[in-house]
Structure formats: structure tokens, C-alpha cells
Amino acid sequence: MLLKNLIYGDRMELDVSGTVCPIPVLKTKKALDSIDDGEELTVIGNYKPALENIARFVEEHGHTVVSTEETEKGFKIVIKK
């Protein structure tokens, strides 16, 4: 299982590929806890059901889903804290 956190200025990228729920949601929560309000987190993964679960978690906790994209290999979701 490979988990990467890459930081680019005011946004972080989290790769949760190779994991299944609830791990992508838990890793997203941990990453959101580590960034400041107004910053963006991009989560990429290959377990497509996690996209809906992450989006639901984000909205339930008062953050904003900026964009979602289903890709050939999985998904990408951009979140604003």
C-alpha cells in the first residue's frame, strides 16, 4: 500500500491508491486536519466507491468539494478546507 503526501504551495496531494474504505476516508480526514483553512487537498485513488464516501465526509464536516473526476484508473477529488 502506497500513501503519498505531496505539498505544492497551498495545496496538498494525497494518493490513496491501493486502499479500500474506510481507509481513504480516514486518510483524507488526517490530511485535512494537517492543513489550514482555505487550503486545498487533492485526493487521488483507484477504488471508485471511495469517491462518493470522501465527498459525503467532506460535506458533512463543513468543507467544500471543488471538483471531482473519474479517471481511467480511478478518481480525483479536490477539496477546500
From TrEMBL:
Task: Return the Gene3D superfamilies for the record.
Answer: TusA-like domain (3.30.110.40)
- Cite the InterPro entries for this sequence: TusA-like (IPR001455), TusA-like_sf (IPR036868)
Q: Which PROSITE patterns match?
A: UPF0033 (PS01148)
- One Pfam annotation reads TusA
User: Please, which domain of life does this record's source organism belong to?
Assistant: Archaea
Where do the UPF0033 domain residues begin and end?
A: 14-38
* PANTHER family documented for this protein: SULFUR CARRIER PROTEIN MJ0990-RELATED, SULFUR CARRIER PROTEIN YEDF-RELATED
Q: What is this protein called?
A: SirA-like domain-containing protein
Species whose genome carries this gene:
Methanothermococcus okinawensis (strain DSM 14208 / JCM 11175 / IH1)
